[in-house]
Design brief:
The chain has 79 residues and is α+β, with helices and mostly antiparallel strands. The chain has a domain of 51 residues: Rossmann fold. Helices cover 34% and strands 15% of the residues. A two-stranded parallel sheet has the order 1-2. Helix 1 runs parallel beside helix 3.
Amino acid sequence: MPARPRGRCESGDRLGCGRAGHLICHQAKTWEAELILLGRRGRSGLKELMLGSVSSYVMHRANCSVLVIQGSLPATDEA
């Protein structure tokens, strides 16, 4: 496989139907990606356990480096 030019960055998007983490890992492998960049909402505890976490799935199963950026949740008026 020829080396990529240094400093070259490509990105892309795809629309798919299925489990998001699996689709992201598969697409990264197809593209021979060196890095996956993901955002996360910041769910924790029971919500993440019940709903799962795409970023967690990708971090543990991707064949390349994964960078996860933590988003901030908007303030609520709940007391």
